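Table S2 (text version). Query chain:
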Amino acid sequence: MTRALRLTTRRALSSIPVLLIVVILTFLLLETAAGDAVDAYLLSIGGGDAAIAETLRQAYGLDQSMAARLWLYLSALARLDLGWSVAFDRPVLGLIIERLPNTLLLMGSATALAFAFGSTLGILAGARPGSLRDRLLSTLSLVVYAIPGFWLGLVLAIVFAVQLRWLPTSGIETIASGRTGLSRAADIAAHLVLPVGTLALIYTALFLRVMRAGMAGIWRLDFVLFARAKGLSRVRIVLRHVARNALLPLITMLGLQAAAMLGGSVVIESIFAIPGFGRLAQEAVSGRDAALLCGIIVVSAVLVILVNLLVDIVYAALDPRVGTAERGA
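Corresponding structure-token output:
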């Protein structure tokens, strides 16, 4: 427990400058973009004169210099204030808190399914490298991984929602259904089947290939050859020695793919009209809402850092050499 706490503290402290760099670069990139939220707002209402635009920029602090706005933003961020959304006329933090749970539910469900099925199928493929089962699973995973996510989502929606009418086509739940408790949970689960399935299929193929490749390399190590020489059953060797050690690179890949899965949710949420983090980012871009987009990127960076921190803790628990090596260094 002490080693895990020490590792967590060290990782958390090292993440602070990373987050600060992300915030500053994001702010500067958004400031150099053409136009601002006031321009987008005036365009949406049919236009306005220069006096109205100037008044709105003064009201939202957009008339100040870039350095002054950056300092004000960093000061507000230290108080957990992500600013004010011009497009929605609401605090950015409130919008993010409202949309984030839907994205976390989508990502969490897809990650759990992909990890469970990917690791299981990877064990089946890697248990006998070069066998017919191994070749079939490897080929199938390559085909699935090569399919674009948006195309896979559209095909699944057309087949299961439009033609067969087995599942809802869009949304996170039935609007104004009045359902509560288990009935509402079942309705949300039905709406999530297609988007979660789309996202999970792609990463199942990736995790399968990583697990299979890891097991293929471990079969040639000395301790596995020794276990086979002792006469241990193949099932015991696979589960207790080969698969267990092959999980380490898979867990590392899980942390590395956190940002990619968060980015992939933007496409999935757009296809299935899920009011989540991804669609909020799309709306922020279309509305040129720099404050909202900057808040979304900051929260996304925090989520990726937290996921990688959790991965480091799990990795240290599975491999005691991690914390020991760092302490010795």
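Notes on Table S2: Confidence is low (pLDDT under 50) at residues 325-329. The longest strand covers residues 84-85.
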